[in-house]
What we know:
By secondary structure, this protein is mainly alpha-helical. 59% of the residues lie in helices and 0% in strands.
Amino acid sequence: MKHGRVTGGQTEAMIDSAYAAWRSDRPAGRATVLVTDSNELVQALNQRARTDLVLEAAR
Length: 59
């Protein structure tokens, strides 16, 4: 908590925030790991990322 790396909040807001951080890390060349507490959320994040990566590649 001291370094602002661990935060709490509503699940949807936390997922959106983590995803936004992952998206901003990619162009900066940073490797980022998204961690969640359920397979359902893992699948949702993976689908979201995959969709964005496909759209990005099509540009």
